[in-house]
Amino acid sequence: MHNFFIDKTNIIGDLVNIDGEHFNHILNVLRMRVGDEFLVTFDQSCHLCQIKEIFQTSLTAQITQRDYLDSNLSIDLYLFQGLPKSDKLELIIQKAVELGVKEIIPVQMERSIAKIEQNKVKQKTQRFNAIAQSAAEQSKRTIIPQVLEPLSFTLALEKAKELDLLLVPYENQKGILSTKEALSLIKKGDKVGVIIGPEGGFSPNEIALAEKDGGKLISLGKRILRTETAAITALSMLMLHAEMNLD
């Protein structure tokens, strides 16, 4: 079932007014008609609606079940992603949102080959946030995760100090015991970050700084993973841990 984020001003009682891009998508792409159902999300709550009337440039739907769906995790996930090459960041953003991340912070690291030119940062960030919103609607999230402008590694670690735990998947960290120990530290309601290196991985200096600031080195297994695979694997692990052990 399709989900649309709408402004609360479009709600009057149990009636929902849909216009603009959402109206065009519902009518001309999805070809919905009176009686069809969809989801609307506002104020971080998702509600089931049924189309009542269709006009020339808008439609009216009625909320038939409030708080229909709760897709939130019991922890807040933050992804610090080393800037990857080409359009990999777009794929990572899409999958991270689907897996429940709350915020995505691109990070310029020592071994990052890709760089976002300063005069294109705002334009790129707007595009990244549009991708995040589309993925949030598709995966029936009740919030739209935010993608921040890129930070330096030092500033990323400063931001990570606001969290309860920062996990650092590192290819030289042997054995899975450190991962199990790190997961055991997570409590319901915690803010948990994971920082992923770019294609070239972390530099020794970055690992030393992350450990100094309290980052927990973990392993994602015996194989060397691409940066996008590492991000998806780490977030999948955290999502499953939260849903299996903390809900």
Describe this structure in words.
With 247 residues, the protein is α/β, with parallel strands linked by helices. The chain contains 7 helices and 13 strands. The strands form 2 sheets. Strands 7, 8, 9, 10, 11, 12 and 13 form a 7-stranded parallel β-sheet that branches. The chain has a 6-stranded mixed β-sheet with strand order 1-4-5-6-3-2. A hairpin with a 3-residue loop joins strand 5 and strand 6. Helix 2 runs parallel beside helix 3. The protein is elongated, with a radius of gyration of 20 Å. The model has no long low-confidence stretch (mean pLDDT 93).
Describe the secondary structure blueprint for this structure:
Elements lengths: L2 E3 L5 E2 L2 E5 H10 L7 E6 L2 E10 L3 E12 L6 E7 L5 H11 L2 E8 L12 H18 L7 E2 L3 E2 H8 L4 E5 L7 H8 L6 E6 L7 H9 L3 E3 L8 H19 L2
Parallel strand pairs: 1-4, 7-8, 7-12, 8-9, 8-10, 11-12, 11-13
Antiparallel strand pairs: 2-3, 3-6, 4-5, 5-6
Helix pairs in contact: 2-3, 2-7
